[in-house]
Specification:
Length: 430
């Protein structure tokens, strides 16, 4: 954006729906999702046999229903996410198909993926007979006791990892995730002893790494696949596909990434003499760019030489900036007609904590952003907030969770009501 070009930072619509009308109808702060962007992101990955949505990124039932209709299956990391998947219409099991060596094995509609079973999730998995992706060997015996003879996926930590922040790096010694790659022979013995078979292999090294790093996983997975052998019918590249948050960031070369994985799969098919299903498990890629936080500017003030816009959303609404120093594009939806030239501003929220700043770098340093001159009552839109946005929102400072709206065909539909203050104290007693 050219310095001072205010028009490029102005947004009045999301997917054809007026932002001012949405804010008027549903209040602020408000999460708004563009259904067509989510569908497009699903189509972008159509080359893969299975797209498994990591619903932790955005688990509203309407979003799950939307991706289900787009042919996408889900991952669940808790009993709560299993419940969401069922409520959104996912069956526990794939329809039984006649199997031959030329057919792909069916995809599990829901896979429970975690490093532990808490007691609720083990109960749900056992009751529904869900497929499990095990991130620790202890899960094997715990599952075998409840579901004798089950087939499982192993999540392997290949000994290296990458992520947009140390907190989202899920491989290497610094990560608690997955079964350590050198332990595989021992874990296979434990699985056999417990009477389980290993049908799937999965690696996820982190979120928001670049594709060059993600590509290293394919070689590592292939080596582990050889150790597991012919029982394998599914391999998963995990999630972690990056999206461009900053203007200078480019879209990932998904075609090249698929080709690499497809070649890995084909070599394994040749070796094992049967088909292998190739899965990818994106969270962020499917929903990040579809999501917007609509906030209202409630104060404009100067602290010495720095100007602040204070909005009614805080890190209780969108935690990524305070947690990871994440950058989110912002635009202004002014109440009036013509925005004036851009100026550098810091943007903060309402919480009683100085870290409640949307314009911050890793380490908590307050930065600024060029935005058109704004006034109290204007709306500010925080963009690319559809992944790890609402799902990581909290009730800190006793703020109700915001409402969520899905815009489709130019029409905004409320898909989660704003919490009330009564909701805030539900279950509490004096
Ligand atoms: N599969 C597994 C096993 C995962 O743990 C995750 C993310 C994904 C798939 C999806 O990753 P994605 O495609 O969305 O990068 N709160 C952080 C991200 C945490 C990711 C946790 N696991 C953030 O806001 O960036």
């Amino acid at each position: 954006m050219a310095p001072g070009d205010a028009s490029q930072s102005v947004r009045r619509e999301i997917a054809g729906a007026s932002i001012a009308d949405l804010a008027h109808a549903h209040g602020t702060p408000l999460y708004v999702y563009d259904a067509e962007i989510i569908r497009q992101r699903c189509r972008d990955l159509a080359a893969w046999d299975t797209i498994r949505f990591a619903q932790k990124a955005c688990s509203n039932l309407a979003v799950l229903d939307l991706v289900r209709r787009a042919g996408v299956v889900v991952d669940a990391v808790s009993a709560g996410e299993i419940h969401r998947a069922l409520a959104a219409g996912y069956p526990a099991h794939a329809p039984v198909a006649a199997a031959s060596a030329t057919d792909l094995p069916p995809a599990h509609p829901i896979v429970y993926t975690a490093d532990i079973f808490d007691r609720d999730s083990l109960d749900a998995v056992a009751r529904l007979g869900l497929h499990v992706n095990c991130g620790s060997a202890d899960m094997l015996e715990q599952l075998a006791e409840r579901v004798p003879g089950a087939a499982v996926t192993l999540r392997v930590n290949p000994g290296f990892g990458h992520g947009h922040s140390q907190k989202t790096n899920t491989g290497g010694e610094g990560s608690k995730h997955g079964i350590w790659h050198e332990e595989i022979p021992e874990v296979l013995r434990r699985a056999e002893w417990a009477g389980l078979s290993v049908s799937g292999l999965h690696m996820h090294i982190g979120s928001g790494a670049d594709l060059a790093h993600l590509a290293e996983v394919a070689g590592s997975l292939e080596r582990v696949a050889h150790e597991i052998g012919r029982s394998l019918t599914t391999i998963s590249a995990g999630g972690g596909l990056p999206v461009p948050y900053k203007p200078e960031e480019v879209r990932a070369d998904l075609g090249g990434y698929f080709t690499l994985w497809d070649a890995t799969r084909k070599r394994l098919e040749d070796r094992f003499g049967h088909r292998i299903r190739l899965e990818i498990e994106p969270g962020r890629y499917l929903t990040a760019e579809a999501g917007f936080v609509v906030t209202e500017i409630r104060a404009v003030k100067r602290q010495g030489g720095r100007k602040y816009l204070l909005v009614d959303a805080g890190f209780n609404t969108l935690a990524r900036p305070v947690l990871y120093g994440s950058y989110h594009p912002m635009s202004l939806c002014p109440a009036g007609d013509s925005p004036t030239a851009c100026e550098e501003v810091a943007v903060g929220g309402p919480l009683c904590e100085s870290g409640d700043i949307f314009t911050q770098a890793d380490g908590g340093f307050v930065t600024t952003r060029p935005l058109p001159a704004a006034a109290v009552g204007d709306l500010l839109v925080i963009e690319i907030a559809g992944a790890y946005g609402f799902v990581m929102a909290s009730n800190y400072n006793s703020k109700p969770l915001p409402a969520e709206v899905l815009v489709d065909g130019g029409h905004g539909r409320l898909v989660r009501a704003r919490q009330s203050v009564a909701d805030l104290v539900r279950g509490e007693t004096v």
